[in-house]
């Protein structure tokens, strides 16, 4: 509890140069982040599934917190790396070669057959308001191929001109690795 109070006092002190920072820790155990994340609508949040603290910004932006800003200690080890397979350089290269000549929907289906999944609204992109232009959101259909790689799904984004964008996304380690 003490560090929480200290942070609160710090905020109320006009002459910050008189405040000594707390000594720096290796592992955060000061609980300031924990308390903050339990406040409703606080910008610091806790992701239970990923085991990580993050700062929210904008509508869906996330900045991951690696070190506690209050005691300098490391935050808990993220589970992020355990959730998805990581593409090796060799597999990324293989998939790039496999897909390098397909740039339209017809070419994709000609090369790989029908996709395993079709999402009519699979990719949504929002451009913020800027220079007097309103915020715009575009959505694109996405086709997903799950059998082109053991460790990645291949996502094909279909643009209105019938051109496609291709990305490789690590498969989940536990659930949908098949
Ligand atoms: Zn801390």
Give a structural overview:
It is a single chain. A hairpin with a 5-residue loop joins strand 6 and strand 7. This protein folds into two domains: 81 residues, no CATH class; 82 residues, no CATH class. With 178 residues, the chain is of the alpha+beta class. It starts with a helix and ends in an 8-residue tail after the last strand. The N terminus is likely disordered. It contains five helices and seven strands, in the order H-H-E-E-E-H-H-H-E-E-E-E. Strands 4-5-6-7 form a four-stranded antiparallel β-sheet, covered by helices on one side. Strands 1-2-3 form a three-stranded antiparallel β-sheet. The chain binds zinc ion. Zinc ion binds next to loops.
Secondary structure topology:
Blueprint: H1 2-12, H2 32-38, E1 44-47, E2 52-57, E3 61-64, H3 80-83, H4 89-99, H5 105-112, E4 117-127, E5 136-145, E6 152-158, E7 164-170
Residues 28, 30, 32, 68, 70-71, 73 line the site of zinc ion.
Helix content: 10-25%
Q: What structural category arises from helix and sheet content?
A: alpha+beta
Strand content: 25-35%
Number of E strands: 7
What is the number of independent domains?
2
From the alpha-carbon coordinates, what is the Rg to the nearest angstrom? 23 Å
Oligomer: single chain
The N- and C-terminal alpha carbons lie at a distance of: 47 Å
Provide the succession of SSEs: HHEEEHHHEEEE
Small-molecule binders here are: zinc ion
Uncertain regions spanning at least 5 consecutive residues? 1-5, 7-13
Discrete helix count: 5
Please outline the major beta sheet.
4 strands, antiparallel
Based on Cα principal axes, name the global outline.
extended
Adjacency order of strands in the biggest sheet: 4-5-6-7
Instruction: Output mean pLDDT.
Output: 85
């Amino acid at each position: 509890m003490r560090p929480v109070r200290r942070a609160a006092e710090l905020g109320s002190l006009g002459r910050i140069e008189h405040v000594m920072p707390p000594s720096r820790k290796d592992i955060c155990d000061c609980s300031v982040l924990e308390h903050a994340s339990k406040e409703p609508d606080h910008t610091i949040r806790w992701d239970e599934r990923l085991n990580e603290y993050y700062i929210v910004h904008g509508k869906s932006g996330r900045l991951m917190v690696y070190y506690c800003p209050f005691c300098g200690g490391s935050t808990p080890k993220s589970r992020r790396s355990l959730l998805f397979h990581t593409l090796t350089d060799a597999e990324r290269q293989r998939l790039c070669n496999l897909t390098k000549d397909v740039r339209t929907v017809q070419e994709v289906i000609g090369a790989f057959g029908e996709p395993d999944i079709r999402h009519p609204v699979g990719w949504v992109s929002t451009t913020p308001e800027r220079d007097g232009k309103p915020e715009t959101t575009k959505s694109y259909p996405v086709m997903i191929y799950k059998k082109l790689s053991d460790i990645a799904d291949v996502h094909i984004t279909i643009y209105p001109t019938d051109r496609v964008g291709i990305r490789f996304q690590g498969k989940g380690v536990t659930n949908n690795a098949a």
